[in-house]
Amino acid sequence: MLLVVEQFLNGLQFGLLLFLLAAGLTLVFGIMDLVNLAHGSLYMMGAYFAATFAAWTGSFLLGALLALGATLVLGIVLEMSALRHLYGRDHLDHVLATFGLILFFNEAVRLIWGPAGLALPLPAWLTVPVPILPGIHYPAYRLAIIIVALLVALLLYLGVMRTRIGMLIRAGASNREMIGALGINIKLLYTLVFGLGAALAGLAGLMQAPILTVQIGMGENILILAFVIIVIGGIGSIRGAFLAAIFVGMIDTLGRAFLPNLLRQVLSGAAASTAAPALSSMLIYLLMAIVLVVRPEGLFPANRR
Amino acid sequence: MKSFTVSKAVTALVLAGLVLLPLYSQLSGNIFILTLFTRIIILALAAASLNLIMGFGGMMSFGHAAYLGIGGYAVGMLAQEGVGSGFIQFPVALAASAMYALVIGALSLRTRGVYFIMITLAFAQMAYYVASGLARYGGDDGLTVYKRSDFSGLIDLSNRTQFYYLCLACLLGVVFLIWRIVNSRFGLVVQGLRSNEQRMQAIGFPAKRYQLVCFVISGTMCGLAGALLANNTDFVSPAVMYWTRSGDLMVMVILGGMGTLFGPIMGAVVFLLLEEFLSQITEYWALIMGPLLLLIVLFGRGGIMGMLGRAGRG
């Protein structure tokens, strides 16, 4: 029981983290029509910034805030210097150019921080277990991730659906020429959206950093998960990204936790212990394949343009 | 007409260089260059196969490295299980790649555009994780191939020169095959589908079936490259299928000139020589390579073949 609740919460936490990453990706794709592979690099930079700033300031929260700002600025600089020139180009150009950016970021990190990973230690008040149900404790930090990510998701929803900027963003997604003709500075809007996406990726990275080590290439595996989520949820749809992210996070975590035991009951011990890791890492891709067969456009496709 | 001759002359020059390379290596005693170029030729073969679906078929596969791994693992696993004959290993490698391509293609081709890019990427990554989970065959650490494929005296893969020529023959054979395919009725339909799928469907061509066959052919060719690669390095590991390798292959195709017959070979030669050259200058070669890619995308339309064409005209 304890294990089930704990793994369930872990799945939720992982899913929400994936959502932060996928939301930025799908926002940038939905609005600027830009495929950004370097999104994972921004996630990695968020983690590196947080580890560095936290070590400088001596405060986890201050470090996290500074890192958030730094990824925002980095995203804006990246958009203005390089990615802006890719709008309206072929998707293949996006893939190649941002692939180049990944190489660049990985190497730059190796140059600046060295090949060894960094650690981002948690402050004491975030390491205590918190009782969530009678007799069941859950690490405070993971709980904090869940709360922060849910808050961000809510803010994102309100921001996009209820504010003037959000209205402009949605308008820009459906017809960029028209919104430009109406006197909106579309360039600035794009830069802001990209910066927002970068900050979301950075937030995901810095929140994940204390759980895993901060290392080169950390953004790449999770980026591919984010792709899977976008494909399942439907490209350009934030709601789809949210639901698919939770779904994928749950399946991945619960699969890894319980599949080995389940298999052991069906197969012999040796066969189960060889098949289980491969099968549990395949699970989400199988899920994606099933979704594709049933709904090639994803579960919640954004409104057609 | 003149533009034609410039790119043709350069292509002929490069091909002649590739044919004569073992001679140079023998005379100068530089064995390293032969090893390097064997690798270049194998990856050029993989790039050429990718070009078939990407350049001619308009299917942007970002998971092509998976076949390198499947072909390689077919050789490695059979060798481990005591089946050393190349007459069994190579057909199995090709068949396994074709099977994988058939399943992945049937699923992925339900989508298009960016979805297709992401899905092929995700499936290749799945193959990567599966290979990492193969505890019996080395898992993450990879699998050493202790004995190269045995073609019972027909050709000796452990002999550098013979192996080099085998790879070169495979590459030229595949390019010839692609040339025949592209100019066949089948190839014209596939290229028509790239330009306008709806129109082709309206004329009555079953679009997906044509694309799937093309996808499987391309995957099988790349499986051959994988089998050769495992023999070249005497080793196969999940890293062969890592998604950056798929990216490398894409870069080679674009760099050389997408949808041209010899472009991928040019791209592979230039890309891998550049990588080799930069990594000798600095440990941080990717710091230069990355922005270089960005610049190629932004300014180098049509890749090397395109530039040669323009140079001929200008």
TrEMBL record, chain A:
GO cellular component, one term: plasma membrane
Protein name: Branched-chain amino acid ABC transporter permease
Pfam family for this entry, one: BPD_transp_2
Keyword Transmembrane helix: yes
Family (UniProt): Belongs to the binding-protein-dependent transport system permease family. LivHM subfamily.
Positions of transmembrane segments: 12-35, 64-83, 140-160, 188-211, 269-294
Membrane topology type: Multi-pass membrane protein
Originating species: Bradyrhizobium zhengyangense
InterPro entries given in the database record: ABC_transp_permease, BCAA_transport_permease
